[in-house]
Amino acid sequence: PLDDLMAHSNKLKAEGCRLETDLTELTAKFGTRSGPGQAGAGR
Description:
- There is one protein chain.
- The protein is mainly α.
- It has a domain at 1-25.
- It has helices at 2-31, 36-42.
């Protein structure tokens, strides 16, 4: 059903946002040490 699909998609989106936040924090933590090339990766 469409409702299930929408709920699943929203859940995936929420998880994706959380992952992206974790990634950004990790990049901020370790990005200072690595070269400037990695800074743009987080966007």
